[in-house]
Design brief:
2 domains; alpha/beta; 11 strands; 11 helices
Length: 283
């Protein structure tokens, strides 16, 4: 596969070591790209201390604001996606009644950026994923998993309680019983279990994980960016409310979309005329 890399950047530590890598890979000839955001603390299993969390948020903001980015892929260096929060750092942080709540709030806000971003965000789970790492993937639109990877909660193994979504989002995704089993057991699930439980939606050979993510991004780039934005909005809002309210929201957004967005009619005309559609710029 030939990849065109654009504008590689990274947030850095005091030692100028990148904590979170950012690169853009071209996915078509029209200048559209996939943003690849990579945790770069392999020696710490990509545990998220506060500087790493801030670096992740900045890279998500960058990807979200760049109109050429059509899909965001998050993964990790080494043998972990992310083992969660940096427990060693909690020896100081968790004693601070002012700083620790702010850290948790920052964590929640950063995960929210994945969910609220107007383009798909895919967690490419390449290795060990636990606690805060699990909470991060729960905020993504898709979770794709390498065959050798493992996922668990593990907060209780260290007398901790998840505070950034694992107890709120996990039961909604896989059901109450399975969520309780995962949280109380503190064990890591193998990839086939994760797929069977509905914790991830795809499992693939380790060496195909990134390529499959980029293949998906190419497919997204073929679609109207404004249509993708509206679909993600409706889907996210729908699962957060009851069915009658979700149906009302869907109808309202569909009518606004089809009656006011030029891309809606362009898609129909392109099909009838058997040509490639010409989408309007992302708003």
């Amino acid at each position: 596969m030939s990849e065109t890399k654009l504008n590689p950047t990274a947030e850095a530590t005091d030692e100028d070591e990148p904590l979170v890598l950012y690169e853009q890979v071209a996915v078509d000839e029209d200048g559209n790209a996939a943003a690849i955001i990579t945790f770069n603390r392999a020696d710490k299993l990509n545990a998220m201390n506060w500087p790493t969390l801030k670096a992740l948020e900045q890279q998500l903001i960058k990807a979200g604001e760049d109109k050429s980015v059509r899909c965001v892929l998050i993964t990790g260096k080494g043998r972990a996606f992310s083992a969660g929060g940096d427990i060693a750092g909690y020896t100081t942080l968790q004693k601070d009644p002012v700083a620790f709540p702010q850290f948790v709030d920052d964590f929640i806000r950063t995960i929210g950026r994945c969910r609220d971003m107007e383009k798909p965000v895919i967690a490419l789970i390449n290795g060990i994923t636990a606690a805060g790492g699990l909470e991060l993937i729960l905020g993504c639109d898709f979770a794709w998993m390498a065959e050798s990877a493992r996922i668990g909660d593990m907060h209780l193994n260290y007398a901790q309680i998840g505070g950034a979504g694992v107890m709120a989002r996990l039961p909604r995704l896989i059901g109450e019983y399975k969520a309780k089993e995962l949280v109380f057991s503190g064990r890591l699930l193998k990839s086939d279990e994760c797929l069977a439980w509905g914790l991830v939606n795809r499992v693939m050979p380790d060496d195909q994980l990134l390529e499959e993510g980029l293949k998906f991004a190419r497919g997204v780039a073929e679609k109207s960016p404004n249509s993708v934005r509206n679909v993600k909005h409706v889907l996210n809002r729908g699962v957060e409310t009851d069915l009658p309210a979700a149906l009302r929201q869907e109808r309202e957004r569909a009518l606004i979309h089809c009656l006011t967005l030029p891309d809606s009619m362009e898609g129909i005309n392109a099909f009838v005329e058997k040509r490639k559609p010409r989408w309007s710029a992302a708003r």
